[in-house]
Amino acid sequence: MESIFHEKQEGSLCAQHCLNNLLQGEYFSPVELSSIAHQLDEEERMRMAEGGVTSEDYRTFLQQPSGNMDDSGFFSIQVISNALKVWGLDLILFNSPEYQRLRIDPINERSFICNYKEHWFTVRKLGKQWFNLNSLLTGPELISDTYLALFLAQLQQEGYSIFVVKGDLPDCEADQLLQMIRVQQMHRPKLIGEELAQLKDPRSQKTDLERALETNDGPGMLDEDEENLQKALALSRHEIDMEDEEADLRRAIQLSMQGSSRNVSQDTPQTSGTNLSSEELRKRREAYFENQQQQRQQADLPGPVSHPRERPPTSSEALGSDLGDAMSEEDMLQVAVSMSLETVRNNLETEGEK
Fold first, then answer.
1. Which position among 14, 21, 68, 115 bears the catalytic label?
2. Tag placement on the chain: N or C end, fewer CB within 10 Å?
3. Would you tell me how many other CB atoms lie within 10 Å of the CB of residue 4?
4. Which residue, 264, 262, 281, is CA-closest to 332?
5. C-alpha to C-alpha distances, 298 to 122, 266, 288, 295, nearest whole angstrom
6. Catalytic: which of 20, 68, 132, 134?
7. Cβ neighbours of 287 (radius 10 Å)
8. Measured between alpha carbons, how far is 156 from 16 in angstroms, rounded to an integer?
9. Residue ranges under compositional bias (Basic and acidic residues) (predicted)?
C-alpha cells in the first residue's frame, strides 16, 4: 500500500487529485489545470464571436462566469479530458448506450474516473488488483474483482457519471510491484471528515480504543475481566450466604432458649429477653433435667435412675461444661439443635405417660 500514490483532498482540487492518482504521480498542479481551463474559455469565446461580437448571445456569454473552472478549484470534464490527451488517453462515458452495447466486463478495463456533484475520483487497477483512489479517503481502498461491477453499479444508482479511461497509462512503481505480489486490507480506510471528527471527539477516540482492544488484545483482556467479575460475584454471594447462616444461627439459638424456658419448672429463675449467657443456659438445663428425673422417680418409671451428676453426661450437660466464651457460633448451633430435639423427645414421652 505504501507504494501506491494517493493524494488527499485539499480545498476543492479533487480534479487535480483525480488526475494525479490516476497517473500515479504529481503530474498536474492547479496552475497547469487553470491554464488548460483558460485555453478552453478562449476557444469558446472565439466560437461565440463568430456569430458577431455585437450579438446578444455574445454579450451574455461574456457576462457569465467560466464553465471550466471557478475560484474554489473546481475543473470541468473538458479540462480533465484535455489534460489526459497530453498522455494519449481518452474518456468514454461508461453509462452511454454505445459503450454498454460493447458488453465489456469492467474487470478487463484499466481505470475509471467518477464524478458526482463536482467531485472527481479515480478507480484504477494496479498490478492485478483494483483500488478506489478517492481523495476523500485517508488511503487507497482495495476493491475485489467480484465487487468491482457491484461497486460501479452502486455509483450509477447514486447518480455518478462514470468514464472509462482508454489508452496506455504511464508506468509506475506501484503497478510493477503489485504485478508480483498481492496486498490484503483488513480495514477499510475512513473518510477524512470522519477521522477529523474522531480526533476532535474524545468519545470517538475511546470507541476506537475499545474497538482496537477487541480486535487485537481484547478477547484475552475481556476474559480476564470476566473472570475477575465472576470471582467478585462469587465472593459477594458467599458473604450473603454467610450473613444468612449467621442470621439462621441466631434465630435457632433464640428459639431453642425460648423453648427451654417454656418447659422448665416454675421455680427456675427467669431472665428478661432471649440473650442468655452460657452460665444461665447451663443452670436452666440442669434444673430442667433434675425436674425430669424427679418426675420419673415419683412415677416409678422402669430403668436405672441415677443422680444427674452420676449418669453419663447428656448433650445438655455437654452444653453446660463445654459452652464457653470461645465457642464458635457453628458449635453453638449444633448444641442448640441437639437440645431442641431432646426437649421435644422428652415432652412427647411425658405426654405419653399421662
1. 14
2. C
3. 22
4. 281
5. 117, 18, 16, 5
6. 134
7. 15
8. 23
9. 279-288
Closest by CA to 20, choosing from 35, 34, 4, is 4
Say whether pTM exceeds 0.85: no
321-350: pLDDT as tens digits: 444 444 555 566 666 666 666 665 666 666
Packing angle of the helix pair 315-322, 278-298 (nearest 10 deg)? 150
Which residue shows C-alpha cell 399421662? 354
Q: Does position 209 have pLDDT exceeding 90, yes or no? A: no
Angle 218-263/278-298 helices, nearest 10 degrees? 50
Place of cell 476543492: 12
Q: Is 115 a catalytic residue?
A: no
Active site residue 82: no
Of 16, 11, 10, which Cα lies nearest the Cα of 34?
A: 16
Report which residue type is found at 51.
G
Q: How many alpha carbons fall within 13 Å on the CB side of residue 21? A: 31
Taking the CB of residue 136, how many other CB atoms lie within 10 A of it?
Answer: 16
Domains of the chain, start order: 14-196 (3.90.70.40)
The model's pLDDT over 292-317, given as tens digits with 9 standing for 90+, comes to: 677 666 665 554 444 444 444 444 44
307 is catalytic: no
Query: Which DSSP category does 299 fall into?
Result: T
pLDDT at 2 over 80: yes
Question: What gap in Å lies between CA 100 and CA 258, rounded to an integer?
Answer: 100
